[in-house]
Amino acid sequence: MKKYLVAAAAVFCVPGAAFAQDFDGPRAEARIGWETPTVSEDGDVFKIESDVSYGGEVGFDLAVGKKVVVGPYATYEFSNVGICDGTDCLKEDGNLGVGGRLGIALGKKALIYGKLGYAKIRFTATTGTVTGSESDSGVQGALGLNLNFGKHAYGLLEVNYADYGKFEGINLQRRHVAAGIGLRL
Length: 185
Fold this sequence. Notes:
Layout: H1 2-13, E1 25-41, E2 44-47, E3 51-63, E4 68-79, E5 82-85, E6 88-105, E7 110-127, E8 130-148, E9 153-167, E10 170-184
Antiparallel strand pairs: 1-2, 1-3, 1-10, 3-4, 4-6, 5-6, 6-7, 7-8, 8-9, 9-10
């Protein structure tokens, strides 16, 4: 009977192997998303516009336990968000994000993660023939899921929120949902 208990314990310990190693190392991904920059004042929230964003992210994940990975990331996403009223136009040029990521492996195929970092957004305004650009920075956070397709390829789904504080005296935020594909080296 003792032999069976030892064999069962050994079998049940193997699945507890280092799943985090399946998500370890440098990574690069292409992303496409849907974003809505908003402004708020006195409790009222107004959408600037909603449209497609596209870009990429690079990062490095380091296994720090059987199921945990941590590491830095840097992302840049171009934006199609823009709104015009006659000859007056406001367009978002893009969003830069850098920070840290913490993930928990849910097995060899899935990783759920959270990100926290710095974000910088840039807008260009045009009125008639006069054009000007301005950027603002703040904090961003994200929750996401990576699904491994094989040893090196993965897909992702992510929701992201950034708060840039006051921009020209009005509170500015960015809400964003993204999907992508990536390679882990």
